[in-house]
Amino acid sequence: MGYATKGAIILLKTEPSIQVQAAIAVIMTIAGFYFNITSTEWIAQTFCIGLVMGLEGMNTTAEAIADFIHPDFHEKIGHIKDIAAGAVVITAIAAAVVGFIIYTPYVVALFE
Ligand SMILES: Nc1ncnc2c1ncn2[C@@H]1O[C@H](COP(=O)(O)OP(=O)(O)OP(=O)(O)O)[C@@H](O)[C@H]1O
Known about the structure:
Blueprint: H1 2-14, H2 16-35, H3 39-69, H4 75-110
Bound molecules: adenosine-5'-triphosphate.
Residues 17, 59-60, 63, 73-74, 77-78, 81-82, 85 line the site of adenosine-5'-triphosphate.
Subcellular location: Cell membrane
GO molecular function, one term: kinase activity
Transmembrane segments: 20-37, 83-106
């Protein structure tokens, strides 16, 4: 747990994409309290946040390994980095859809 916590702190301190995702996670958590979302919605939201940020960490790992193995430009390194980033995008799209499904009724209710 000590090394893992150290790794999570490194990610949060050094990775801009993780920092942006952490900021979005804080905003969504505030929104969750503001709209008083249900337990099931909290579970879905928390799972999405963990999934996107966890996979972003794995993407960073893939990039670091690729750069270590082959620091110079190479078509295959580019391919590896592209598909690692693509995996994050897939989860981010799914998370955005979940967020849309959760919050649309609450936002619509604000204007009724
Ligand atoms: N050594 C390389 N050889 C070939 N293409 C590369 C190489 N390094 C990066 N690229 C290309 O540049 C893109 C961005 O790579 P980079 O390592 O800068 O990731 P990043 O911008 O830090 O990504 P993320 O925001 O997901 O952390 C890659 O997806 C790949 O297409």
